[in-house]
Amino acid sequence: MLSVDMDKVTEIIREVSAEEIAPRFGQLEKGDIDTKTHAMDLVTIADTEAERVLTKRFCDLLPGSVALGEEAAHADPKLPERVFGEDAPIWIIDPVDGTKNFAHHKQPFRCMVALYHGGETIAAWIVDPIEGSATVAEKGAGTYHNAAPVRVRSDIQAAKDAKGFLISFARDRIRKHYGHIDFFDEIAHYSCCGAEYQEIARGLFDFCAYRNLKPWDHAPGTLLVREAGGVAKYITADRSNEYHANGNALGLLCASSPELWAEMNELLLPLFE
């Protein structure tokens, strides 16, 4: 398996965050914010500049590698197909995950990076651009938060005991389909996938479910969860349908235990079909 200096990548993300993202938090002017596919799909100068610098530094760090950034893919919709069709290592970059929060001077937001090679995600980093705290994982080597090993709450095996993250689509569909949403101990939504994945990998929450499965949103976090002992699979009748950065499905479900994942999958499956 391809090897990379995990600490060096963390250092690069922290440096670029400190230079391109943190100084702009709460300082954006009207011309620094734009919309992409709809009014709530925002991009800021911090997104574009951070991605530009990260792309160069990562490709310099690992000669022969290529980058798949969120903003580059928006500008060139064929980019994901091209890079996944190559054999080169791919840096999957979400420069500011939670851009809506960032643009409105709210936390949380994160800088997320995954390294993909040989048909799988082999390393991942999720960093808080303000605090610099980092959750990282390397395939087969576990998940670490600020250099300390972390694990999911694998003892949580039933939805009634679980704390998790559900997008508004899922919450609304659950209420409409079942007549209530009282299946869980607690439900939250941060509008930032990266922060939600961190909470699960660190054993603070137990599940998350999503339906817009762009690789920059989910390749980093799913590896963090898996390496911390959790499960990351598509919401399908086929319970062995593992998440893949170059795959797609109607929904994605991560959970802290196989038992919790199975119960949640049964609950959500009718809503994502």
Keywords for this structure?
9 helices; globular; 273 residues; D-Maltodextrin-Binding Protein, domain 2; alpha+beta; 2 domains; 23% strand; seven-stranded mixed β-sheet
3D structure, described in words:
The chain is α+β, with helices and mostly antiparallel strands and 273 residues long. It folds into 2 domains: 6-150, Fructose-1,6-Bisphosphatase, subunit A, domain 1 (Fructose-1,6-Bisphosphatase, Chain A, domain 1), CATH 3.30.540; 159-272, D-Maltodextrin-Binding Protein, domain 2, CATH 3.40.190. It has helices at residues 6-21, 45-61, 70-75, 79-84, 99-103, 168-178, 193-201, 215-227, 258-272, and strands spanning 33-35, 42-44, 66-69, 90-97, 110-117, 120-127, 134-138, 143-145, 148-150, 163-166, 186-188, 207-210, 231-234, 252-255. Helix 7 packs parallel to helix 8 (215-227).
Number of spatially distinct domains: 2
The stretches of 5 or more residues where confidence is low (pLDDT under 50) are none
Mean pLDDT: 95
Strand order of the largest sheet: 3-4-5-6-7-8-9
Strand content: 15-25%
Structural class: alpha+beta
Helix content: 25-40%
Series of secondary-structure elements, N-terminal to C-terminal: HEEHEHHEHEEEEEEHEHEHEEH
CATH class membership of the largest domain: Alpha Beta
Specify Rg, calculated over alpha carbons. Answer: 18 Å
Task: Please give the alpha-carbon distance between the first and last residues.
Answer: 36 Å
